[in-house]
Specification:
Length: 198
């Protein structure tokens, strides 16, 4: 039996989400139909608002309601340090620690020859242009401790060091393969404090 068109569309929409297969999507779709009207309306509004009202900061690539983002606008932050992360959610994880007061740069990915992701496919050109600003003294690379994350760190280091800028890598209390977004605050704090020069 074919599902009616509206539910088939809803199932297809859920299947666009990562880790959601046909079975889960079907369960979620039928669950959604059972939900109260106002709950569904709120859900739909929050989806649209998250997409419409947020954009990426043109300076650092962080997710923001206002461009430039509040971190880039904050002149009390240490303008001499840029911490490089893979995803915007890593910025939020590190900001929770409250011990880092410099700036950020979000790559929106990592280099991955296996998946055909090269330097031009990530938010790298804008990082290099930020480094031409003389105030930057240190770049802290906080890509995840995966093969791609390490390779990206090495690539960045080779690219940036010749400009006379100190390049450091987060210390790994973070275990291999672990993601910054899942690390607890104490681990992250130690990782920032114990960063080593590349
Ligand atoms: Zn920004």
């Amino acid at each position: 039996m074919q599902y009616p068109e509206p539910i088939a569309r809803l199932i297809a929409s859920y299947m666009n989400l990562p880790g959601i297969g046909q079975k889960t999507a079907t369960r979620l779709a039928f669950y959604t139909i059972e939900m109260k009207d106002e709950v569904v309306t709120e859900f739909a509004k929050s989806l649209l608002s998250a997409k419409r009202d947020l954009s990426f900061c043109h300076i650092c690539g962080n997710l923001t309601e206002e461009d430039p983002c509040s971190i880039c606008r904050d002149k009390t932050r240490d303008q001499g340090t840029i911490l490089v992360v893979e995803e915007a959610k890593d910025v939020m994880a590190l900001e929770k620690v409250r011990e880092y007061h410099g700036l950020y740069h979000v790559l929106h990915g990592v280099l991955s020859p296996m998946e055909g992701t090269g330097p031009e496919d990530i938010n790298l050109a804008s990082l290099i242009s930020r480094l031409h600003n003389e105030t930057v003294k240190e770049v802290i690379i906080a890509t995840n401790a995966t093969t791609e994350g390490e390779a990206t760190a090495m690539y960045l280091s080779r690219l940036i060091k010749p400009a006379g800028i100190k390049v450091t890598r987060l210390a790994h209390g973070l275990s291999v393969g672990s993601d910054i977004e899942y690390a607890d605050e104490v681990t992250l704090l130690k990782a920032v404090e114990g960063r080593r020069e590349l």
